[in-house]
């Protein structure tokens, strides 16, 4: 319960636990039942959620992250009323709209129009409201030409576009969204980003389950990390995102998983110790140890190492990396965040370096030269090296491991301060004729 005088939360989860019974041996045929009438199937207990507690404020964008099997989707289904809970209580204030699994609630033997009407009605719209919004759903999903096609003939991308379009048409107070960006092309993902921005402007409450840490940092006010059904951390999105990466790629986290330790022990294993934390209090570090970012520094246009960069001048960021394993075609990168925590620069070698191989024990320095168009501020520097391929398979990633100051004698007050050229051309007016 909230204290007197404090706003009532939109979502309250208090001590929730959920278990599933998994049969060790399944009987599939009548013959097996007849031959073994006294056999009693045994079950294993799988604890998907363990004493989970958190709250989401009215109008808050709340992220839930965790590895596969951590309990994220189970928690969302409990909040949506799909699953009951074994212990604890859940409270959701207002109408709920859910996007939990691809195709859930759809009848694949019916065309899109019928499914829109059915789903919109199930989510709380009247039949008249549902009929009035069919065109808006199809417009957003860009599926007008497939409106009479049965959903069993839809691609996964078409299904996710239709489901998401129905969900956002419902005037819900709380939206529960699970991995909406996992399927869909780049254009649809941008539409989702635009809708998230609109939901924030409208002060709607959103609970977002995702593996995309960029979306968590971009949209969420707070985030929660789950591991093996436990709450490991709740807080600002960026530290929670880094903790998630630590849990995925750190050697200590993998050792903890193999030892089947409790969620509390996993939290301790992945937040302490010199292998994961840098010397700076604000530094966050993740990686599997295949390489090490030893240091990083800036040079000005004259090639001098400096702590303060002058605005509108060319500069270079240098990162010193040592490899502890043989690695082929790694990805090097660095980023800058301003004093508000916004990522304003992100640069990597995805298109610049290829077919490079490095042996264990080898050291390299990577130089990133760029025109400094940033406004005066103190910027936090992050640098990392990752394995090739998609995702963030970090060998070593050091977030906020140092800072750099950018100065200017003529600040513009904007986020960027690029050099520019101005011309003025007077127009000759034609003489008035009588």
| Cα separation of the termini | 83 Å
Give the DSSP E fraction (strand runs of 2 or more residues): 25-35%
Would you count the extended β strands for me? 21
Please, how many helices? Answer: 11
Helix content: 10-25%
What value does the average pLDDT take?
Answer: 82
Give Rg in angstroms: 27 Å
- Poorly predicted segments: 251-279
Question: Which structural traits does this protein have?
Answer:
alpha+beta, 11 helices
Report on the architecture of this protein.
- The longest helix has 16 residues, at 186-201.
- A hairpin with a 2-residue loop joins strand 8 (222-227) and strand 9 (230-235).
- 25% of the residues lie in helices and 33% in strands.
- Helix 5 (134-141) packs across helix 6 (156-169) and helix 9 packs across helix 10 (251-258).
- The strands form 5 sheets. Strands 5-6-7-3-8-9 form a 6-stranded mixed beta sheet, sandwiched between helices.
- It has helices at residues 30-35, 72-80, 112-122, 127-132, 134-141, 156-169, 186-201, 213-219, 237-249, 251-258, 263-271; strands spanning 11-23, 43-56, 61-66, 87-92, 96-99, 174-178, 205-209, 222-227, 230-235, 284-286, 291-299, 305-306, 308-310, 314-323, 327-328, 331-337, 343-348, 357-358, 363-371, 377-386, 394-407.
- The chain contains 11 helices and 21 strands.
- The radius of gyration is 27 Å and the shape is globular.
- By secondary structure, it is an alpha+beta fold.
- The model is unreliable at 251-279 (pLDDT under 50).
């Amino acid at each position: 319960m909230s204290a007197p005088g404090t706003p009532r939360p939109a979502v309250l989860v208090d001590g929730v636990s959920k278990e599933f019974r998994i049969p060790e041996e399944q009987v599939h045929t009548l013959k097996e039942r007849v031959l073994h009438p006294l056999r009693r199937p045994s079950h294993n207990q799988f604890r998907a959620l363990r004493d989970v507690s958190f709250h989401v404020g009215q109008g808050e964008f709340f992220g839930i992250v965790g590895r596969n099997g951590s309990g994220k989707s189970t928690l969302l289904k409990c909040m949506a009323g799909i699953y009951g809970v074994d212990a604890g209580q859940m409270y959701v204030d207002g109408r709920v709209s859910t996007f939990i699994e691809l195709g859930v609630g759809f009848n694949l033997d019916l065309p899109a129009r019928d499914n829109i009407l059915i789903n919109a009605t199930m989510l709380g719209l009247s039949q008249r409201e549902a009929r009035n919004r069919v065109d808006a759903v199809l417009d957003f999903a860009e599926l007008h030409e497939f409106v009479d096609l049965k959903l069993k003939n839809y691609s996964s991308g078409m299904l996710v576009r239709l489901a998401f379009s129905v969900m956002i048409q419902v005037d819900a107070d709380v939206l529960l969204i699970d991995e909406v960006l996992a399927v869909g092309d780049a254009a649809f993902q941008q539409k989702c980003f635009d809708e998230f921005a609109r939901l924030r402007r409208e002060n709607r409450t959103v609970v977002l389950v995702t593996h995309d840490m960029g979306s968590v940092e971009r949209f969420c006010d707070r985030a929660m990390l789950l591991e093996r059904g436990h709450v490991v951390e709740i807080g600002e999105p960026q530290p929670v995102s880094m903790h998630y990466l630590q849990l995925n790629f750190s050697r200590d986290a993998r050792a903890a998983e193999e030892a089947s330790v409790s969620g509390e022990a996993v939290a301790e294993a992945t937040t302490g110790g010199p292998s994961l934390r840098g010397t700076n209090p604000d530094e966050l570090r993740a990686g599997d140890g295949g390489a090490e970012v030893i240091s990083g520094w800036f040079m000005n246009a004259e090639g001098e190492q400096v702590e303060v960069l002058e605005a509108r001048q060319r500069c270079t960021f240098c990162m010193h990396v040592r490899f502890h394993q043989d690695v082929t075609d790694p990805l090097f990168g660095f980023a800058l965040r301003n004093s508000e925590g916004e990522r304003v620069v992100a640069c990597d070698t995805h298109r610049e370096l290829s077919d490079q191989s490095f042996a264990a024990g080898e050291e390299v320095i990577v130089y990133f030269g760029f025109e400094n168009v940033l406004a005066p501020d103190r910027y936090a520097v992050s640098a990392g090296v990752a394995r090739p391929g998609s995702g963030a398979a970090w060998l070593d990633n050091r977030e906020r491991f140092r800072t750099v100051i950018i100065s200017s004698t003529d600040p513009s007050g904007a986020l960027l301060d690029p050099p520019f050229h101005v011309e003025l051309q007077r127009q000759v007016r034609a003489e008035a004729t009588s």
